[in-house]
Amino acid sequence: MTAYKNNTISTGVSEFLLNCFVRSPSWQLWLSLPLSLLFLLAMGANTILLVTIRMEASLHEPVYYLLSLLSMLDILLCLTVIPKVLAIFWLDLRSISFPACFLQMYIMNSFLAMESCTFMIMAFDRYIAICHPLRYPSIINDQFVVKAATFILVRNALIPLPIPILSARLHYCWKNVIENCICANMSVSRLSCDDVTFNQIYQFTIAWALLGTDLILIFLSYTFILRAVLRLKTEGAVAKALSTCSSHFILILFFSTILLVFILTHVAKRKVSPDVPVLLNVLHHVIPAALNPIVYGVKTQEIKQGIKRLLKKGW
């Protein structure tokens, strides 16, 4: 009889409830407006950037194709996370079905890894442009972009796939309240009555294997770039070389800084409010997405001119 009851309970939970900022309910009020503005900015700016690159023949180059991929990832990542968070804030729609929760978990893990990998490929692009300028057209071409995009999508679609699968295979006996605004893997897994040690080890290993490797390669690329730049003797050459890398380097800082702060707050979670990591997790999905196209639009003359020509055509 007991076994029957336990089995009934384990299969009786059909949805999760996202317990978003219940310890700090005032956060929902003041956060909803800037979050919605950031979301609209991310959608609008990335759409304008994609349309500009698509319409302007002068921007049909490998580096801008990679930037287009980054914009598409930003849009899809924002759409996966932010509308649901705003629905919780405004309409108190906290419930999320099992399939939707694990799908959101997969998209967040895979798309963030895709963004990191895209930054790494873009760093390689800048490395070739600065350190081997004469070989740049033969190395960084349309065929390279196709291969790079395939690598980015396949690597980061397959390797994080076990994360939601492992979480979905756990038994959820009676707890279904997620102490988070999103279906983060460990926030969901800790509700299970099973041992989640393997889930934790796999996510930790994959995170450092993917994001850690990308950051190391980015760091090495910019180390070689800086060394090559410092050797330039021509007047104005250093400033010109650095300006070609500035936009990309700023984007990497946005992406990695928020991620680093998020990791540090998790490590020091006893010293900060439990809602702080939740807030940073949400912001990490929208702030880089909103700022990426703006930085490239402001810092890259070709994109700036392309947007101006597009606006003139519209008028």
UniProtKB/TrEMBL annotation:
Database matches in InterPro entries: GPCR_Rhodpsn, GPCR_Rhodpsn_7TM, Olfact_rcpt, OR51/52/56-like
Keywords: G-protein coupled receptor, Membrane, Olfaction, Receptor, Sensory transduction, Transducer, Transmembrane, Transmembrane helix
Annotated ranges, domain G-protein coupled receptors family 1 profile: 45-296
Keyword Transmembrane helix (UniProt): yes
Entry keyword Membrane: yes
Gene Ontology, cellular component aspect: plasma membrane
Protein name: Olfactory receptor 56A3
